[in-house]
Amino acid sequence: RLTFKLLKSAFSLTMLIWWLPAALAVLLLQSAAVTETQAECPAEGCSEAALFVSEDEAEGTGLHLLQRRQWQQIQAEAAKEQLPPPFEDDETSTFDPTSFLFDGVDSHPPPLTPIVVPAHKKRSLNLHFNAVMASCNPRIGDPQKCTKVVTKSARSLFTQLHVKARVEEKIPPLSHEETTAFRHRFSELVVGGSKSVMMKSTKTEQYGGWKQLVIKGYDNMRPVVSKSMVEFINAGVGEYTAHWDDSFIKVSVAKGKSKLGLDITQEEEDAMRNETLKATETDMLEIDEEEQQKDVYSSTFDVREHWPNCKEVTGHVRYQTCNNCWSHATALVTESRLCIKTNGAFNGPNAWLSQSFIAACRMDGANYCRGGSGLLGFKTVTRWGVPTGGPDFRGNIQAGVQTCYPQILPNEANVHCPGACSPFSHYPRSLQQDTFYVQYNPRGLHPAGRQTPYLAKKAMVEDGPILLGMRIYQDFYAYKNGIYAPVKKSWNRYIGGHAVTGMGFGPGYVLAINSWSTAWGMEGAFKVAPQAIDFGYFIPGHMTQGHGLGAAAHLAMPLPRE
Fold this sequence. Notes:
Low-confidence stretches: 24-71, 77-95, 99-122, 548-553
Number of strands: 11
Helix content: 25-40%
Radius of gyration: 29 Å
Strand content: 5-15%
Order of helices and strands: HHHHHHHEHHHEHHHHHHEEHEEEEEEE
Distance between the termini: 114 Å
Mean pLDDT: 80
Largest sheet: 9 strands, mixed
Number of helices: 17
Structural class: alpha+beta
Oligomer: single chain
């Protein structure tokens, strides 16, 4: 018996010695595979989303070998890339993070095809949806369990979507902090939105809404500017310099969209084409052939310098807080032209016209925070006039200056065209006494028209600023100085339409004023390549004195002085 026990122990020891090297080899291979496919775990512990928590490494080191080869193939073809389609995102300019939940949903949307990431178990969108539906049923669901299940699904789906976006270069490399903030925004949106989706009456509507929540949620929560994007631009690929600020980590595409708001319908675009064709036959007769042979922007012109007695007004910079850039541009155009028209009489610290009045009294009757067309503001001012109104505190107005109807907070309820000055403003005269009635005969010109830049130049030289319409891409948010034109990269995606104020021109550029405060760009201004003004030129026409409804037919001059 003792001999048998000794033989058994010797056999076990032999087998252990035999299999130990093989086991160690397997462990080393698994460790190498994890190192190959997974980034370093964050301090709070490893998770599926840790795959792309850090993307500071070059050439997609954190990707699986097959995905890395796809990445290299995409990079090899980078020189052939063109700008992404300008209308690939069909959402409206006014963005509510959950608004897409109630869009028209395909009754049988196809399932999301998952990308398999090694060392992690993946589930399709269908399986995630079933788990969420079972846990978040409003009748029998447990709220705490619902939150836990949705959070887990959100993290898993974020990884799948993020791998796919990175391989296809729809998003640039992100740092640890950028990816963490991105994942957090996405998870918060999915957790909050899932409970609303599960309130829908049918499973088809629930699935369609949840699918849109996940896919559009990822697209809208991605960072509008990344540090790698700024570094790429500043490497010399464009004619402008980009600026990185740590605050960009918290700025999503959804938030970026709230700083836009120019909407051009197909009907309006057709009208612009017709107006442009008509201008070819008439307006070009006023421009001599010698001028037409020159480069349209060969000389330099700045409205602010050309009319120095109005520099205090033409130097205004506003800060928009919702999707009404068109009204901000209209206000600056109108107050600048009013100062020029009156030879500097409309001037001083309170010579600001009310952007909020223009937005609240808009001719189409829509909400004051919604987007609008390039001509809407001029038509509104012509119809109702406009009183004084200072900007948001981030605009460059002097502290303590009082105006009739200052800029109101975004997304306020029950905002209508006002019949009196703001009750929060200590202004010495009534709305009727303060309203400036001016008449415009505005026209929109299509950017493709050969004569369009000549007419835009002529309008600025003769009467002052005009309104410009641009398609905005992500890199525009990081602009600091130089001549802007969107960088041709697949991750530099179209965000929406934007209205700015054309204030001059020079060799190879048009000078414009944005409505994002003096902290952006060249103290609120920027130079843009003419080809980037691709939505249109909106010219108000010669300003004349108008007749207000029930008011005297004169401008509300002079302004009250404190």
